Amino acid sequence: MPTTEVGHKLEPRKVLKEFFGFDGFKDNQEAVISCILAKKDCFVIMPTGAGKSMCYQLPAMMMEGTAIVISPLIALMKNQVDNIRGFANKSSFAHFLNSTLCKADLSQVVEDMLSGETKLLYVAPETLKKEETIELLKQVKISFVAVDEAHCISEWGHDFRPEYRRIKQMIKAIDDVPLMALTATATPKVQQDVQKNLGMMNAQLFKSSFNRPNLFYQVRPKGRKDIVHKEIISFIKGHLNSSGIVYCLSRKKVEEVAEMLNMNGIKAFAYHAGLDSKVRVQHQDAFLMEDCNVIVATIAFGMGIDKPDVRFVIHYDVPKSLEGFYQETGRGGRDGLQGDCLLLYNPSDIEKLEKFMKDKPVAEQEIGTLLIAETAAFAESSQCRRKVLLHYFGEIFDEKNCNKMCDNCAHPKPKKDVTQDLVGMLKAIGKLKNELSISHLVNYFVGNKTDEIKYYGHHELPDFGFGKHKDKLFWKSLVRLALVHGFLNKNIEKYGLLSLLPLAEAYIQSPTAHEMAVDIEYESVNDEDFEHFKAESICDEELFSHLKDLRRKVAKEKSLPPYVIFQDPSLEDMATKYPITIEELSNINGVGKNKARKFGEPFVEYIAKFVLENNIEREHDIVLKGNSERSAKRVNIILNVDKKVDLPVISKQLGISFDELLQELNQIVNSGTKLNLRYFFNEFLEEDLQNEITAYFRTMEIADVDAAVDYFDGEYSHEELEIMHIQFLSDVGN
Predict the structure, then answer these.
(1) Reduced to 3 states, what is the DSSP secondary structure of residue 307?
(2) Which CATH number is 227's domain given?
(3) Is the pLDDT of residue 4 over 50?
């Protein structure tokens, strides 16, 4: 605490130095603090890492009473309370009030509040609306209320929360006090929506630049899954020993990508709402303490984290909005050093996002569709990424100041003069006299008689089809260029309909030269295409035939059936990928490390010789290890078998049939993992009978349990022989 008792007569700079140890304020911090000290409402828009929290923490110390900070994030509350307590001389100085508190902790909060010792109280909107919370706060002098993450109030924000809509009503029930709204991401529409809802239209606005000059933005095409995984591995390994975040939209994808990274030597943890809260905290702490390099997460991760040295942020899936993209990339490079932001873009991801919205109310669908379209426009644009991104937030930016800190400025596509096309397009839009969608305009330019065009009668106008000498992509690119240069207005209230701005009229009268590179057209790739690709992969039939001969020879030497060595699908995969080391062989379908070490040497030697003699070019890309053999289900099975759990109990626990369990066990041993199932079949088969069955298996040319049932004339069931065969494969093959 400052040596002088807290009070508003103190100078903010003096308190800043004495309490926090800083010599000066950043950007608009001092102006915001002065505004709230004067008991005026204020709206604060500051990018991530610019110091929003100081705007309410410092005046809370200086004003009489308790400041209420409404925050949607429990993790953020705890972190900020811990942080502010580190500067204070009493833990009662700051508290949080949410569902995680036990009765004893809740009692302590109430006691400290009523005694007047608490200067800052963080509260979730869900907690604030409770009657007991409002009754408590009525007994306390409130200095002001700060609404953090204020974009949550707006349906146009990237993280809309209905509870936030009732904040003004809840505050009025407590006291009429100054109000501060804070956010890192607010378009002009979101800003207006928030101010209107909070009843603070006359609030003083403090808006900092959204530009993060140390972040490098790049977009790459997201192709087949195997190629994308290799690209991510290469990208991360290019940031050796650096911290980074990979964002995915689904929990399933988070788990898949985290597992893939770990199997390729990158220590990564998953983070999503489906994990136990203790596990989430452990993973978050491991990331903060640098016990792991990478967090693979849904958008739930990062808002409560203050880690300054995140060197890269990867968006595996396209974000639902540019606000979300901006906030998530903003978690990189908060220490001022370079952060690399990679967005992997596939148009089919856009289609999937749009499909997810089909069951939502019409208004929500229209808003969501527009937000997704903005993200697509950013990804497809050949213009400066910064210019496009900042224009979205209502900020004018000269691309010369990008300093080649985006892919389009660092590696620009060839540009052509489009001055006459731009003038012609703006004239045509002006004659239409309506606010229209970009798709309507583009169809009008190229002469497509859509139902919408006919409805307006635009196909009968003299300018209809004036631009048919150019394709749709060109005109879409030119419309986007006109938007960021201020020639066109996008009416957010009418879901993005376009019309001319006065600047366009002036430009038509006195045009200046404009150059443009046509936007990027990305190929749409689906997972189904990838599965088809795998099925159609080309196998070297000559090598496959030689490998079958080699397998027969090795099997004879070891007195084993050939299929125990390697099964045909494994040989086909070898004849497709040409593995020439034991490590590469272990990545072949159905092999695994143990089987590769046990039987692999003659095979990789033969393949290496075959490759050399036939001048075959192999892929020198990253070897991508699959994650199927270590799926969560199979790990569960292996652990339960190790614990000697009854097999029917395992199948019931996993919710699968006994036949499905046997199939999984087969896959496990065929992938090179040893299993000991004797604890199960020892109960119904004597040792001499087991030896008799094993001896028969050694004589089989192919794996055929049905033939074994016939051979023993039904003395053993199919299931009994299947389990014995799995054990046989494990014993002799692994």
Answers:
(1) coil
(2) 3.40.50.300
(3) no
Q: Where are the alpha helices (DSSP H) in 88-218?
A: 103-115, 125-128, 131-138, 167-174, 188-198
DSSP symbol at 517: P
How many structural domains does the chain have? Answer: 5
Query: Is 106 a member of any domain?
Result: yes
Q: Return the half-sphere exposure (C-beta side, CA atoms, 13 A cut-off) of residue 397.
A: 22
> Contact 224/346 with Cβ under 8 angstroms?
no
> Would you state the structure tokens that stand for residue 168, as one six-digit string?
């003004």
Q: How far is CA 692 from the centre of its chain?
A: 55
Asked whether residue 313 falls in the same domain as residue 380, the answer is: yes
Contact 244, 312 (CB under 8 A): yes
Point out which residues pair with 220 in neighbouring strands: 344
Does any domain span residue 523? no
Q: 607 lies in which domain range?
A: 537-626
Residues 230 and 335 both lie in one domain: yes
In order of 676, 694, 719, the CA distances from 686 in angstroms are 16, 13, 16
Q: Which amino acid is at 152?
A: C
Q: What is the DSSP string of 7-72?
A: -TTS-HHHHIIIII--SS--TTHHHHHHHHHTT--EEEE--TTS-HHHHHHHHHHHSSSEEEEE-S
Residues 71 and 89 in one domain: yes
Is the pLDDT score of 329 beyond 80?
yes
Q: Which two tokens stand for residue 294?
A: 């990478």
Q: Is residue 521 part of a domain?
A: no
Residue 524 lies in a domain: no
- Residues 255 and 138 both lie in one domain: no
State pTM to two decimals.
0.64
Do 377 and 267 fall into the same domain? yes
AA identity, residue 480: R
Among residues 488, 427, 507, 491, which one has the least CA distance to residue 461?
Answer: 427
Q: Identify residue 3 by its one-letter amino acid code.
A: T
Instruction: Calculate what percentage of the chain has a pLDDT beyond 90.
Output: 20
C-alpha to C-alpha distance for 647 and 638, rounded to whole angstroms: 11
Q: Which amino acid is at 699?
A: T
Q: Which of the listed residues 168, 191, 207 is the one where a domain comes to its end? A: 207
Q: Which is it for the CA torsion 268, 661, 664, 639, positive or negative?
A: positive
- Comparing 156-170, 180-194, 707-721, the range with the smallest average pLDDT is 156-170
Task: Count the Cβ atoms, other than its own, within 10 Å of residue 33.
Answer: 24
Q: Token pair of 97, please?
A: 């009030």
Same domain, 261 and 224: yes
Q: Which of 267, 263, 274, 394 is closest to 326 using CA atoms?
A: 394
The answer on 219 and 196 residing in a single domain is: no
pLDDT digits (tens, 9 = 90+) for 112-160: 889 888 899 999 888 888 888 888 888 889 999 999 888 888 766 666 6
pLDDT value at position 499?
A: 84
Polymer length in residues for the chain: 734
pLDDT (0 to 100) of residue 705? 82
Q: What is the mean pLDDT of the chain?
A: 83
pLDDT over threshold 80, residue 360: no
User: To which H or E segment does residue 152 belong?
Assistant: none
Q: What is the pLDDT of residues 203-255, one digit of tens each?
A: 999 988 889 999 999 999 888 787 888 889 889 988 888 899 999 988 889 99
Whether residue 170 sits in one domain with residue 277: no
Task: Give the CATH number, domain containing residue 478.
Answer: 1.10.10.10
pLDDT at position 383: 92
C-alpha to C-alpha distances, 153 to 197, 373, 389, nearest whole angstrom = 8, 22, 22
Q: What is the pLDDT of residue 143?
A: 92
Whether 343 has a pLDDT exceeding 90, the answer reads: yes
Question: How high is the pLDDT of residue 3?
Answer: 39
Q: Which of 626, 650, 672 is the last residue of a domain?
A: 626
